[in-house]
Design brief:
This protein is an alpha+beta fold. It has 11 helices and 13 strands. It folds into 2 domains: about 140 residues, PurM-like, N-terminal domain (60s Ribosomal Protein L30, Chain: A), CATH 3.30.1330.10; about 190 residues, PurM-like C-terminal domain (Phosphoribosyl-aminoimidazole Synthetase, Chain A, domain 2). It has a 7-stranded mixed sheet with strand order 8-10-7-11-9-12-13, sandwiched between helices. Strands 1-2-3-6-4-5 form a 6-stranded mixed sheet, covered by helices on one side. The longest helix has 18 residues.
Length: about 350
């Protein structure tokens, strides 16, 4: 079977990758599972959260994105990221100037988060056309308490921070800035490029976790908010109901998606944290996240029937929310003129 660009479909992961997991060890508390953002392992009497993520669809700010998305995955456990290692793969013929710029971006993002860069590897690699950066982040679980993607129970309230599609909007506005500016204007294009500055979810994830009542957190990256909802539902064995009118989008995202003829619900969404929260804790968590200066809103609820994954559209009609087969970013990159 020929695989599409982007994240490997979950059914293929189950049939292939998940069958080859090395030795069974008692110190693996939470290992590979569908939708889970970070592993939990026991080391020397402490629990550690570990994550690994590549950035392959962006050209500009690739180091910045890689550092943040790896740390985001640790934060979805309710754990502060502390250490980061990176692998930087450059196209043949790249200059040291490019390596310096990517390393500077990684340093800038890590310094902002209080994370130390502790190792990694850099090389030029044949057969690639643009830089690829892989981030490995880790942190200590405090008090033995953490949350997982698969912890949502029926009747939980679903919250989202900031807005959907932030990362995808920033990538397209940066890598195709003249095309986007020709449609949106330079002011809106510059605003869209600034969405890179919002792709960290560490602040809101830790604030929500401290508030209590959080059953699950998930970082909806490839596949966007729609993909993230399906991953959380599959990991937790629940369904969901979402109100389209309550899903937050920036106007720049909607304009960029119209230009490229793509669905904003399925556009890569680093910077948007998805939370499943006990009903009685929802207001407390909303207030806690807003206190740290992050936008957050209630968008839906989990359902007992795992097969019911629905969205109520702006006209009040109930529809199934399809699981994205591929992130919309890859479709846009394949036809950059929006055709």
């Amino acid at each position: 079977m020929k695989l599409p660009a982007g994240k490997v479909p979950q059914e293929i992961l189950q049939k292939t990758v998940f069958k080859f997991l090395g030795a069974e060890r008692e110190d693996v508390i939470l290992g590979p599972a569908l939708g889970e953002d970070a592993a939990i392992v026991k080391a020397g009497g402490k629990l550690l959260a570990l994550s690994c993520d590549p950035v392959s669809g962006a050209v500009r700010r690739v180091g910045w994105i890689a550092a943040h998305v790896a740390c985001n995955d640790v934060a979805t456990r309710g754990v502060k990221p502390q250490w980061l290692s990176t692998v930087i793969l450059l196209p043949e013929g790249s200059t040291s100037k490019l390596l310096t710029e990517i390393s500077r971006q990684i340093d800038e993002a890590s310094s902002q988060l209080g994370v130390a860069v502790v190792g990694g590897h850099s090389e030029t690699a044949p057969g690639i056309s643009h830089p690829i950066v892989v981030g490995f982040a880790s942190g200590v679980v405090r008090g033995g308490k953490y949350v997982r993607t698969g912890g949502a129970k029926p009747g939980a309230k679903l919250l989202m921070s900031k807005a959907a599609g932030l990362e995808g909007t920033a990538i397209l506005a940066s890598d195709f800035e003249r095309l986007v500016a020709g449609s949106l204007g330079w002011k809106a294009t510059r605003e869209a490029q600034k969405f890179y500055l919002e792709i960290s979810v560490v602040r809101e994830a830790l604030a929500a976790f401290r508030a209590g009542g959080v059953q699950a957190m998930h970082d909806p990256t490839e596949g966007g908010l729609a993909g993230g909802l399906h991953e959380l539902a599959e990991a937790s064995g629940v369904g969901f109901r979402i109100w389209e009118e309550q899903v937050a989008f920036r106007s720049e995202t909607l304009e960029v998606c119209r230009l490229f003829s793509i669905n904003p619900l399925a556009l890569i969404s680093s910077g948007c944290l998805l939370l499943a929260v006990e009903e009685e804790a929802a207001e407390r968590v909303l207030k806690a996240v807003r206190r740290v200066g992050v936008e957050v809103c209630l968008v839906g609820e989990t359902l007992e029937d795992p097969s019911r994954r629905i969205i109520i559209d702006r006209h009040g009609r109930t529809k199934k929310l399809p699981k994205p087969s591929q992130d919309e970013l890859w479709k846009a990159l394949a036809r950059p003129l929006g055709k």
